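> Could you send the Transmembrane protein 126A prediction when you get a chance?

Sure thing. Input:
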Amino acid sequence: MTASMHGQPSPSLEDAKLRRPVVIEIIEKNFDYLRKEMTQNVYQTATFGTTAGFSGIFSNFLFRRCFKVKHDALKTYASLATLPFLSTVITDKLFVIDALYSDNISKENCVFRSSLIGIVCGVFYPISLAFTKNGRLATKLKMENHKSNNTKENITIVDISRKINQLPEAERNLLEHGSVYVGLNAALCGLIANSLFRRILNVTKARIAAGLPMAWIPFLTTDITYRCFVSFPLNTGDLDCETCTITRSGLIGLVIGGLYPVFLAIPVNGGLAARYQSALLPHKGNILSYWIRTSKPVFRKMLFPIMLQTMFSAYLGSEQYKLLIKALQLSEPGKEIH
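Output:
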């Protein structure tokens, strides 16, 4: 009996032998899973940072054209590509990737953080950095050439206004009041977006109460913004670059005249839907995902009006710049040679 017991292997040893390959297999599977997850996150973060780097390069190109900077090209392009890339990668790693691994972030919060990082680090930071660097270079170049430019004739605001008044009435109105057309298009975009959200949220009441602000607010905002950043600088001689004029007017048409009315329609119609209970609104935890899902069909349908508004605004800026050049080339009546 004792011999047979010694001849048979111990049950605990058999369990240990069977358990060991299972544990090793589980560890290998977890390791492969973590490696795939880390590789995927690295690729996503690198893509995120690369997009920010391209945004910096494009911003640097635009501001170099606007400020007419022709020196230190390699230095500015290198810094504008590297700094946004690094800032986006590090910020995404600290506030999104690490939070996902620690399981301390919800899906809505993750989307919100990623969007905020994309806007701040991928758009605003490259633009501000390009503006600062190229503005500093342009100021330095202007100070160096200040003495040589003293002999040039300075065109004052009075001279520009006098020359603009010599244009035909239709061209003068287009140059001075072209912002009204951009504002009208923005009001139209607001009304279209308002109608689309009303259909989705089944809002049938307060048509005038919702339609008036959705037309009036985008009109005023776009008109004032266009006057401040395009029309007024053109008429005072502060904006003397055609590329800058087209870029400014196009951005105003895109952001203020196209996207802003759509975003404005969300709280307006959301408030009406909550007041009249025409649609099931989400709880606090699902607000962001709900409005993203609700807004997708609206943005798809608004893509053509937004692009049309952008192209029209850029075209208007180009025409206004050409009219200004035409006005400056006119000879004044008192200085004509007979």
